[in-house]
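Hi U.,

Before I forget, here's the chain from the pilot set. I'm dumping it here mostly so it's searchable later in email.
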Amino acid sequence: MFTGIIEGLGTITAIHPSGQGSRIAITSDFDLTGTRIGDSISVNGACLTAVILHGRRFSVDASPETLMRSVLGRIKLGERVNLERALRLSDRLDGHLVSGHVDGIGTLSKREPLANAIVITFSVAQSLARYMIEKGSVAVDGTSLTINRCDSTTFEVSIIPHTAGLTTIGLKKVGDAVNIEVDMIGKYVERFVTNRGSGDRRAGESGGGIDMALLAKSGFI
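Structure:
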């Protein structure tokens, strides 16, 4: 589990194909003291496991699913990436709950200055946009951001100078692809309310799912 508060940047220093997956080596800009082999590290928002660790350089294995679902499938040598080590129970939760399980890829479609901020618009599939709400949270390349506005295919965020300077979002240009992780709470609520996946119930078990009628009857709406 992560917070979406990026610790610092890293640089892709090696990419080795491994079957349909890849082993990726990354050199961190910051000290990794306390990190151990087997620890989870978010790389551009994708939760990966450190399998080799030497000083500030570590290696991770990216599965075919990770390469297909995220921008790591098109990563290049020398590219800069956002890094965050896993949340500890004693840490402050400054961003929002981020699982590191990328839901899909978005595209930066507009970038314009506004006072001391940069307003950035991303285009996403409707299957991702449905989980976004104004003033809700989203993780872009692992960075926790607040949604200003959204519709069925786009969302807008404001980037302050601090965020632009400490994350890769300050380097992104129109047309660049980014990892998107929507707020996990919305996905769980939708599943319970719509009773999706009800076909997994045991034979003969009654429906009894949560629906709008039950919520109204119970006084929630």
